[in-house]
Amino acid sequence: MKRLPPAGLLSAARVCRGWRETAKRIWRAAEELKLRVPINVTVGFVASMLQKCPGIVRLSLRMESDFDSTMLACVAFSCPNLEYMEISTFDSASIRINGDELGRFVADKKGLKTLKMEGCSNLGGFVLCSYSLSTLWLSDLHSLSKMVFNCPQLREISLEFSCQENDTTDLTTMIEGLGRSCPRLQNIHIASERLSHSAVLALTAAQLRGLRMLSLVLGSEITDASVAAISSSYPNLELLDLSGSGVSDSGISMICNVFPDTLTRLLLALCPNVTSSGIQFATFQLPLLEIMDCGMTICDPNMQNPAADEDNCKLQKTSGSNVHLINQKLIIKHSRLRKLSFWGCTGLDALYLNCPRLIDLNLNSCTNLHPGRLLLQCPTLENVHASGCQDMLIGAIQSQVRDASFAAMENHSPSKRLPDGSKRVRVPHLLSEESPEPEKKRRRIERQHCNVLLG
């Protein structure tokens, strides 16, 4: 019965008295609850569920109806030991609480360590004071009059602003205060069109010594000068995400000079000033790189990119400013890359990859990639995303990953060493004097089939 979801456990409690008592014990012992709140459900339903679990520590609510101050008060009253709260919204649901109500909730929950909330467009402004909070995620923010953080234990923060032109949030002032009051920050993610070079300077002036992951997304005014400031202040970054910025190949060169011994993830999607030369240089100069996203960087300026319809409104604005030449070529040889993305790169004509550890390759909407100029020497590939590609290119991808799969299986034939010990030769099972490997052992070494995903 412990494995049943909440709805199943409620149904099981109706079977008999014994099952009802067992269900009560399970509710009382529960420390984590994941609950979907359907449309038009009253706060009484949520209250009744939470009262069954007085020891709840982790709470996740999937809101299909609005989350208001009454619901927040219900959570505060019913979950005195709460450490983790996540609220996600779906369809037309929204978070209808203001910044003062959120601030009081955070201040009252002395043990709250993680708070994640979507749909925060009605906050208006907030002051968060907590000596326990270590992770904070807020999305859909808009026109905040104030953002004050007094969270000395905060290590990770994610602030995503809605894509609206009339946003009046002062990010520079917010970042200055964040640096003063949250000295232990390690991971920072901010997505906003109002990100600028002055905001970057405010961040670098904070001197956050523990910073390891920095993501500043959709800031078209972030330039190579911003990269220089980041590089001089935070030389130990492991992740750098400047997607949607004005960074060019010169900025990539600075990144490669400063972070060759630390950087494992580099994301430069929607950067119209980056060329194939800069991408190729980065893969050559960053030996520890494991994840790289260059989506919609190499674009044909005369072509409407279908990938732009799948993401937020910023994509179309950024892609329209790309003026680079088409028919660009990429040759990448890297021993550690595991995930590589070129989604929407309509200007990419030829691609040659030699990445023995690559498991995921995204080529969605690479409409100009020539089937005869594609070479995938990636024996561990598990997924290739090819939605929106030409049929001939999809056929070439399927053929190459199938051939790689057969080659990997053939390489596991038993071997014999020549009498003088100079060379090892492959011997088919049927010709080997020794008995073939057991079926279970052979099954373990067979390579998993690579999936070509078209949807």
Automatic annotation (TrEMBL):
Instruction: Locate the region Disordered.
Output: 410-444
The protein, known as:
F-box domain-containing protein
* Annotated InterPro entries: F-box_LRR-repeat (IPR050648), LRR_dom_sf (IPR032675)
Domain of life the protein comes from: Eukaryota
Per the record, GO CC terms? cytoplasm
